[in-house]
Design goal:
With 244 residues, the protein is of the alpha+beta class. The chain contains ten helices and eight strands. The chain folds into three domains: 70 residues, no CATH class; 58 residues, no CATH class; 101 residues, no CATH class. This is HTH IS408-type domain-containing protein.
Length: 244
């Protein structure tokens, strides 16, 4: 049985958008739009459909009732997606592939969403979460530096030797302007050299350089008052204006 009556209820009684109806019913974007178009074409309003059964609503909108029924879409565990995205190297594309594989392996007659619908539904679900504090950065104020949790490798083209390296990343808070480079280690000399090259790359010096609690820059980790190894220097005013 199609969920036509539920689609009409959510749209005209609750006032949901098509994306919200998709997330609630598990129907595809095309199916939701098709049901609404069919209802408009035959002049079926929600006050009229409210007093009808699902079968009566379906018979009003479809000539061949019960035939060519579309397969139900397998629901997405959005909380699982949200939790997995916090892990290093995990992307929506990877999680969608895992979800699709699990649906196929389950073989219960349902079919998975494709990648674009998977992303749209997750983004719609994410908007229902509680709001978090928004941080506002002034241009040139802060440069955030850290090492990536996922280490890349360098392969010697002649010998084939694989060397694991660190990935240094620096990002300006206001513009998200990013500098990244591979280095041999996270030791003090490598960290300072990478930071210097990052400042040369962005063409200026911010008011504050903010490290995460990496060992190269923080000697005493603390949630509220970490002990920084290298006190920041006062930059020139013209350098701050350039680091946007």
């Amino acid at each position: 049985m199609r969920k036509v009556r539920e689609v009409l209820r959510l749209r005209f009684e609750v006032g949901c958008s098509q994306r919200e109806i998709q997330a609630s019913t598990g129907l595809s974007k095309g199916s939701v739009g098709d049901y609404l178009k069919r209802a408009a074409a035959c002049g079926l309003t929600w006050p009229e459909a409210r007093s009808m059964t699902d079968a009566e609503v379906e018979a009003r909108l479809f000539r061949l009732v019960g035939r060519n029924e579309p397969l139900l879409r397998a629901p997405i565990d959005f909380q699982w997606v949200h939790t997995e995205l916090r892990k290093p190297g995990v992307t929506l594309q990877l999680l969608c592939a895992e979800y699709q594989h699990a649906v196929i392996e389950r073989a219960d007659g349902s079919r998975p969403y494709q990648y674009s619908q998977f992303c749209d539904l997750y983004n719609a679900w994410q908007k229902t979460l509680a709001l978090s504090m928004r941080q506002v950065h002034r241009a040139g104020e802060k440069l955030f530096v850290d090492y990536s949790g996922k280490k890349p490798c360098i392969v010697d083209p002649e010998s084939g030797e694989v060397t694991v390296v660190e990935l240094f990343v620096a990002v300006l808070g206001a513009s998200n302007y990013t500098y990244a480079e591979a280095s041999r280690s996270q030791k003090k000399a490598d960290f300072i050299a990478s930071t210097m090259r990052a400042l040369e790359y962005i063409g200026g010096v911010p008011e504050v350089i903010v490290p995460d609690q990496l060992r190269s820059a923080v000697s005493g980790p603390d949630r509220y008052d970490p002990e920084i190894k290298y006190p920041s220097c006062q930059p020139r005013r013209d350098s701050v204006e350039q680091a946007a």
